Amino acid sequence: MGNLNEKEGVMKKKIFGLTVALTLTAVGALGGFANQAAAADPIVLGVPSARAFAEGAMTERGIILALEEINAKGGVNVGGVKRPLKVEIMDTRDLEAGVPVAEALLVVERLILDKKANFIVGGPIRTEAYNAAMDLFSKYKTISLVNTGVYSPGTAQRIAENYEKYKYSFRLTGHVGIEIGMDLPALLKGLKEDYGFDKAYIMVQDVAHARASGDIVEKLLPKWGWQVLGKKVYPTGTTDFSLGLLDAKKQGAQFLWVWIDMPEVGILMRQWADLKVPALPMGYARTAQDPGFWEQTEGGCAYLVLAVLNAGNVPTKVTPWAERFNEAWVKRWGNEPTGYSCSAPYMTVYVLKDAIERANSLDSEAVIPALEKTDIKGGVYGRIRFNPKSHDIIRKHDPNEGALGAWFQWQNGKRVAIFPKAVATGSLQIPPWLKR
Amino acid sequence: MDVLVYGLVNSAILALMAVGFTLVYGISRLANFAHGALYVLTGFVTWIFLRTLGLNYALAILAALFITAMIGALIYHAFLVRVRSLEASEIIGSFAVGLVIMEALRWRGFIGHGFAIPKFVKGTLSIGWVMVDLQRIIIIGIGLLIVICLWLFTHYTKIGLALRAIAQDEQAAMMLGMDSDRMATISLAVGSALAGVAAVVILPLGNLTVESGYQVLIYAVAVCIVGGLGSWPGAVVAAFLLGYAQILTDKFGGSHYQAVVAMAAIIITLILRPSGLFGKQKELEERV
Predict the structure, then answer these.
(1) A237: chain B residues, CB-CB within 8 Å
(2) How far apart are the C-alpha atoms of A145 and A371, rounded to whole Å?
């Protein structure tokens, strides 16, 4: 009996010892996990975006796609620790009519202060809102990489003129100066040489960026040997463009510069097709970039040539990454990239990852010089580099030299990239009713 | 020639947009500020029937018009009847209903520019050297048809005569057994259906956007103020005045001043003749 008690006592001691050992192991393991979790705190990307608009929706998609790809590979390497990316999206409503700029600024401030965003990527989309937000980025020393909208060349100029204050802002997308100053002369040269066109007509919307494009083109065309026959400025919501189109037809215009950033551009294109206006329409129209525009206009948009700012926003094979991006986009979102804000938001996350890893820090003062030294070859829209003074992406027509814009033409229900040559998947077509 | 042809088209569009609004006001003295929202709602309901449910186009339109008419009746029966005769409340209430409709459309995903309904007929017609697409010719035809039908309806049908009686002297009509609320419900239903007719003939020219509801409301109000609130012949005349003024501005002034024409017309009318061209609302005050 006494022997039995002794054995029980030994057994109890063993069980106690085992329990303590297991508990300690568990606590140790949990502590280890906890330490690891603390080390792998996410890097927060604040995304101010006009969520009710396609531009905003596509921006979010581009960022999320890149983020998922990076996180699937373990995240961003900061000081030897792989940290996942986390996204915080808030609606700036800055594209909605009548919404003051202050609303977008509040959103930016909340992302920085409440959501503890380490970096701001995405918008605000409207130039006025973004330019105002640049002061907030400076105040909170938070890096912003804008990749959608902000169409004015003035933004980069502001950074260059006051570098110390605005060095926190970078732009990964094109602007009106690139499209008109760099792409358009080459396109028009082709039209002049190949088809003998030299008469133009301008139709723009009565909003700041569109009017500016009309004014600039009106001044530049004569310098390039073109004759400007007329110019129409349409208020937002115009439902009839017939008088302008008939005037262009009557005067013998062969090229129509269109910069109409409102849904009614669908009416314009239907009327252009119905009236068989013998002038090739070219320019910028956000609505007309959508794959559904062909159906909306019942094919009336055939031959329309449009800018989409960055290659990748229409399917191209400019680099292997561009092809992979298109496939990944279709797989993730169910349809092709659309609008002008798919490829740049996607690349932004990779550019940031690259800079953070080189800086080995999340500190703005360390990441800014790393971003300025960015040189990603073979990106979705070519080589990604920044002008170190203006923080604007460097644009070229050669993907080995810089980032590429893209122009496509509506052909048989498809968006076919036609310019620059490096991105082209087809060639320019001229309407049969347009005589050479 | 182009001014003549496209002025006529523009006038027909404005008349179609405004005639439902002015009819409701003329009969019930109700300013239905949900008019623009009902216009876009009809477009989107037609789109749903056509694209999602695969209904025949004509059936889709008829079903959409019926639904819009019922919603119009419901707006009166559920909301406006409670604030009847409180003019400011009627305006605010109906505008709020319009906002609810438009925001509900956005909430249900009708955002962006990817929605359109097809033209009735494709092709163009040459009038002299001016080419016009057939949908615009249809707009002129339907505008004319609506005016004729409205005149026949209000002059030769029992309900139409009752509506006119209510419009002329509500209390006397009620003494003769006419139900004012019932007539107001009918007028809201007919007015809403007219907004719907405008939508299904005008919207095929472009695409459907929720925001266009505001613009339709502005043009409808502009035409009705110039023509005289409540007078549908006045609305037709005003639509022609504004329609041609806009086209002439486009041709000889600048297309970007077109929107200013409508607003300027409201201001000038309110200064010179507050009741509008055919309105009788403040005629006595004006004489005094």
Answers:
(1) 212, 215, 259
(2) 10
Number of domains in chain B: 1
Cβ separation A298–B122 shorter than 8 A: yes
Tell whether A258 and A337 lie within a shared domain: no
Instruction: Determine whether the interchain pair B206/A298 forms a contact, defined as Cβ–Cβ distance below 8 Å.
Output: no
Buried-state track B120-156, b at ≥16 Cβ within 10 A, e below 16: beeebeeeeebbbbebbbbbbebbeebbeebeebbee
Residue A322 and residue A294 in one domain: no
Total number of domains constituting chain A: 2
pLDDT of residue B80: 85
With beta carbons under 8 A apart, name residues in chain A contacting B255: 232-235, 238, 243-244
- The phi-psi region of residue A187 (left if phi > 0; otherwise alpha if psi is between -120 and 50; otherwise beta) is alpha
Which residue positions in chain A have pLDDT lower than 50? 1-2, 4, 27-38
pLDDT for B32 beyond 80: yes
**Domain for residue A28, yes or no?**
no
Interfacial A residues in 249-268 facing B (CB < 8 Å): 263-264, 266-267
Residue B59 makes CB contacts below 8 A (sequence gap 6+) with B49
Long-range contacts of A180-183 (CB under 8 A, 24+ apart): A180/A213, A180/A216, A180/A217, A180/A220, A182/A395, A182/A397, A182/A405, A183/A307, A183/A405, A183/A407, A183/A419, A183/A420
Within 8 A of B44 by CB-CB distance, chain A residues are none
* Contact A243/B at CB under 8 A: yes
- Look at A393 and B130; give whichever has higher pLDDT: A393
Residues A303, A154, single domain; the answer is no
The answer to whether A267 contacts B6, with C-beta atoms less than 8 Å apart, is no
On whether residue A24 sits in a domain, the answer given is: no
Rounded to two decimals, the ipTM of the complex is: 0.70
Residues of B with CB under 8 A from a CB of A: 2-3, 6, 9-10, 13, 106, 111-116, 118-119, 122-124, 130-133, 202, 205-207, 209, 211-212, 215, 247, 250-251, 254-259
- Is B258 in Cβ contact with A235 (below 8 Å)? yes
Query: CATH no. for residue A97?
Result: 3.40.50.2300
Give the one of A237, A267, A295 whose C-beta lies nearest to B205's C-beta. Answer: A267
Structural domain includes residue A9 = no
Q: Strand A280-284 relative to strand A305-307: parallel, antiparallel, unpaired? A: parallel
Residues in chain B with CB shorter than 8 Å from the CB of A287 are 113, 207
Contact state of A243 with B9 under an 8 Å Cβ cutoff: no
**A217 shares its domain with A162:** no
Q: What range does the domain containing A162 cover?
A: 43-174+316-385
Percent of chain B clearing pLDDT 90 (strictly above)? 22
Q: Are A275 and A347 in a shared domain?
A: no
Nearest CA in chain A to B126: A275
For residue B17, the enclosing domain spans 2-287
Check which CATH number belongs to the domain holding B198 and give it. 1.10.3470
A239 contacts B205? CB cut-off 8 A: yes
- The single-letter code of the amino acid at A20 is V
Q: What is the pLDDT of residues B83-115, one digit of tens each?
A: 877 888 888 988 999 989 988 888 887 776 678
Pair A184, A162 in one domain: no
Q: What percent of chain B has pLDDT over 70?
A: 95
Check CB contact under 8 Å for B207 and A246.
no
Domain contains A30: no
DSSP H or E stretch at residue A49: strand A43-49
pLDDT the model gives residue B280:
65
